[in-house]
């Protein structure tokens, strides 16, 4: 496989029909089904194979992994002091950078304000020049949530003659198809049926529907989503007030069932900190932003020139965020919330978290196939940021429980040499303790401040359970590592339920 060849971006086809005040871009519905399916599955791996997760590690990556493993084993036997010190120092530096990002995120939270409501003049001025918006909603085994989904999408405040909503179902999923057909769908909603095939993933369905979707802008929503009604207007305003390099705006994600169980509370704290604080911080620092799986808004031209979604990556959102950064596009946070269902049970949470971590591993492996080219695409600052964000987070999930084991053994035995056997590098022992302490304190402070600013201070006490939650994340990380080898493209479905609650929270804050 020639990983070095360059490929031109696929031209964007223009449709002749017009939306009042905007254009209507998209491919004709008459395009043969098999051709569309082939494009959905194979476009990225044909045009940019070095960026496709259809392939596993390349030769040099496998060789490097073997060499490092052998070197660590030999070093542990022949030079245990030096080896231990080097490994410990590398991990300490990585974890310290993660702590620094959390501290910056706290500063972001403390410096933001509530978004101003859209004025009548702004609305009337925008109404004259609305472009067509395409909403893609992939559904799989989601019959139970269909009525609430249609209600939430119908509440969007956007001219329906400039709006197309694609409800995407797999051909074999008859239950969801029947649930959709039982609804009285408005004329701007359509059902898109995806033919059977592999990999049966969300990004494959998105690519297939995008081929016939009509719109200058594209947004993805999940089956259980409740976007705020003015979200499309706010996204459009963000694109118009920014330069052409703005490739995506990511809305805040939060939950409408935070108080149900231990997992819904921890998930809500995590989501609030991530989308209200960390994502805006990364965007402000101009670092790569691994996108969330929903409520990402794109100009269609940028989405298509980036290659669309990778159907073989189980976190197609995070991967696309890195590809956007590589092509020079920016990602910004959007002060609008989409409400989601937090997983209520350990089984559901574990499956979802395993898929997320496996996808992050896939994404990191893919983009590190050619590190020199990645460095050239991103620049030094963004490249270093990616190593901390993705490489550091994956490493911390895998190493975290072992640090507990070694630290516990060291404290119980009174032997600090279990952590740092070299006396001259004894400072690393204290650096390790500092990282552990600072990691917990920064995460607890960030989570508590984030939920308090969201008007949910009752959740703040739950941040004290972060140590337990992190150990469970490590469990999911090792499960993800196993699946990365045994079932890399398997999509572990997250089960959703019909909602009977209403989101209750303050709006997100903006800088």
Automatic annotation (TrEMBL):
Biased composition (Basic and acidic residues): 1-13
Example GO molecular function: glycosyltransferase activity
GO cellular component: membrane
Residue ranges of the region described as Disordered: 1-31
Spans traversing the lipid bilayer: 54-79, 85-110, 383-407, 427-452, 459-478
Pfam families: Glyco_tranf_2_3
Keyword Membrane carried by entry: yes
Protein name: Glycosyl transferase family 2
UniProt-listed InterPro entries: Glycosyltr_2/OpgH_subfam, Nucleotide-diphossugar_trans
Species this chain originates from: Candidatus Filomicrobium marinum
Keywords: Glycosyltransferase, Membrane, Transferase, Transmembrane, Transmembrane helix
Membrane topology recorded in Swiss-Prot or TrEMBL: Multi-pass membrane protein
Subcellular location: Membrane
